[in-house]
Amino acid sequence: MRILSITIFMLFFISCDQTTSFKKEDFDTNIIPQPKMIDKGSGVLLLSGQSKLYSPQSDVYPLLDLFISEINKITNIELGTTDTNNHEADILFQIDASMIGEEYSIEIGNTINVIGGNYKALAKAKSTLLQLLGKEEGKLMFPIVTIKDNPNASYRGLLVDLARQWHEIHTIKKLIDLAAYYKINYLQLHFTDYQSYTLPSTKYKNLSTPNRHYTFEQLKELEAYSQLRGITIIPEIDIPGHSSQFVRKYPEIFAIKDTVTNPWIINMGKEDAYEALDFIIGEISSIFEASPYFHIGGDEAIFDKVSEDPFVQNYIKTHQIDNDVHELYRHFLVRMNGIVKKHHKQMCVWEGFRPNGKIKIPKDIIVFEFETNRYLPNELIKDGYTVVNTSWKPLYVVNEKKWEPKTIYAWNMWKWDNWYDKAPSYNPIQMEKSPLVIGAQMCSWEQSEKVEIPSLRKRLPVYMERVWNTDKKIPFEEVMNHIDILDDRLSKLINDNEQDSLLHGHNFTKDTQ
């Protein structure tokens, strides 16, 4: 493959004069997150509307078509593709399997040569090119530059809460475009909670909240849309707590005896409940096939009256579980882990279980640590769990409970912080670097779709700069200068220019609650 890439580059170095030209002009390279290596040359490459894109791999052509459409949205210039290596192409995308993961390189000289370790790496390179893109006198303009890049964190996530605040499909697509623009690679969709159940089901149709749920066709559409852009959707069904929709719609399957006192938790003692959850998880897993993960929530379960339920009492005896509802909860997590594995996914949970317990929680789950009230991140790491940092401060974006970009930039991937003075991380927990912290996730909770884009568009790239590059590369002021320029281009890409008024000088604290 190395020989092939050199040969192709030499062929395209003598690309058609009619479609390319050079100009001695300074051209700023505004890229967020910053590449690991960038070597700036002199001048810019100009491409005409007759320029074409080529790849030796047919699987890459959907990405080329996407790139063409995005260039058109930003510049009103429409390029084309060629399916033969015949000197017509000025932009070449190719996969080189010897590169690792999302590693990619871009060489802009007489042509633009893009190489990535896989499709997703090429998608990240495409985003870099969109950020470099300029326009002059009806031509595309790119700086003469060589870039070599790869992320430090393998998990770079964004969560969107669809259960508390319904989002139309077109809004979710905008969020995917925003995420792709700044090289997010996982989008977790919080589909279920107290307020609504937004998923479809062939067997448990009553679960779906009227006028607030997606069809199978819409979910498949989102899966294809995200995959094309190099983003993987992680579905979340929040259980055993946050589950009042299950309890109200199918009490004969999911409810405990005293639903008046506790209508929020699934009955962990009913075999029918496990059977139904197995079916539902399988149904949703088959839609989001590309995801290696399935998130079951697992947090903030309210155990009032659970131990008094006769099904629970019988289940505890049958499975020889200590007469302790917390042990039943740990058993529930273990059993759900088996169900998720059965459907070829790895289970993810919010921080919810505690360090102490007779039933051991498997180490092959991934813990999204947010509150630091139950199992501290340093303890999780010491005990061998894989962790995603979802520190409440500064990664939560919740209407006015959010933080300014400067505060986000002061955070790092091994730091947990909380605004709540009774949380252990109110005095921030700063850990040593550990490979068990595989990344981080910005979590947008309870926000209407009207404020979603404005809230995230300048916070997300700052957070991404800190997880793509876990060591700071440039000062904060320079980061924001880049983002301000890139944001104008983003507005054209997503056809949305609304901004958040709580961006600078605003940090949520307990006193501002």
UniProtKB/TrEMBL annotation:
Pfam families: Glyco_hydro_20 (PF00728), Glyco_hydro_20b (PF02838). It catalyses: Hydrolysis of terminal non-reducing N-acetyl-D-hexosamine residues in N-acetyl-beta-D-hexosaminides. It is an enzyme of class 3 (hydrolase). The keyword Transport does not apply. Its EC number is 3.2.1.52. Residues 29-149 form the Beta-hexosaminidase bacterial type N-terminal domain. Belongs to the glycosyl hydrolase 20 family. This is beta-N-acetylhexosaminidase. It comes from Maribacter aquimaris. The lineage of its organism: Bacteria, Pseudomonadati, Bacteroidota, Flavobacteriia, Flavobacteriales.
